[in-house]
Amino acid sequence: MKLFGPLYDRCRVLAAHRHAPWYLGFVSTIESIFFPVPTDVMLAPMALANPKAWWRLGLLATLTSVLGGVIGYGLGYFAIEAVMPWIVRVGYDDTYARVQELFSQYGVWIMFVAAFTPIPFKVFTVAGGAAAMPLLPFVLASLVGRGIRFFLVAWVVAWGGPKVEPVFRRYIEIVGWVIAVLILGAIVWLNMRG
């Protein structure tokens, strides 16, 4: 099933659009709250289309992702009862319970790991608020984790340039499914820890 290739191609078209930074900011924000497609799918083609702006793109993705994380935190902190039916409907309820346990065990470190890795950051943002994690450590861990991830993606793509793009496009389907399997594996791992 071809899913990530067509998505990547669409993001490449959007990356060349004059409003591309707005699209990146929007995708990055909502990805930290509920959107299933990772920001990297939009960030990589934008860094390829404008390699000199890689650091600005990484910064934009980082800041808007943290903004989305703070919104997710607010949903968890102020409205977990209203958000819980959605968490159950999308099948994240067991994961949410495990994430709550991880917050109590590891605190701010689990937020950093969630921000950097391909595990579902959105679950951690809502759970961080519901667990009443202090906001400043939440924001700092998100900022550092997301920053390292997005600056690294933008830099690698900008550095590799057009010579890497055909290779990247050729393997995007594999990379996308590997990330999906990693996310699934993280969910299974979290469920097995309970």
Describe the SSE topology.
Blueprint: H1 4-15, H2 20-31, H3 40-49, H4 54-89, H5 93-106, H6 108-116, H7 121-130, H8 135-160, H9 165-193
Protein name: VTT domain-containing protein
Keywords: Membrane, Transmembrane, Transmembrane helix
InterPro entries: DedA_domain, VTT_dom
Secondary structure: helix percent? over 70%
Contiguous runs where pLDDT drops below 50 for at least 5 residues: none
Count of DSSP H/I helices: 9
Measured by DSSP, the beta-strand proportion falls in under 5%
Order of helices and strands: HHHHHHHHH
Rounded mean pLDDT is 82
Total number of beta strands? 0
Radius of gyration: 17 Å
Give a short summary of the structure.
This protein is mainly α and about 190 residues long.
What does this entry look like structurally?
By secondary structure, this protein is an all-alpha fold. It has one domain. 81% of the residues lie in helices and 0% in strands. It has helices spanning 4-15, 20-31, 40-49, 54-89, 93-106, 108-116, 121-130, 135-160, 165-193. α5 crosses α7, α6 (108-116) packs antiparallel against α7 and α6 (108-116) packs parallel to α8 (135-160). It is globular. The protein starts with a helix and ends with a helix. The model has no long low-confidence stretch (mean pLDDT 82).
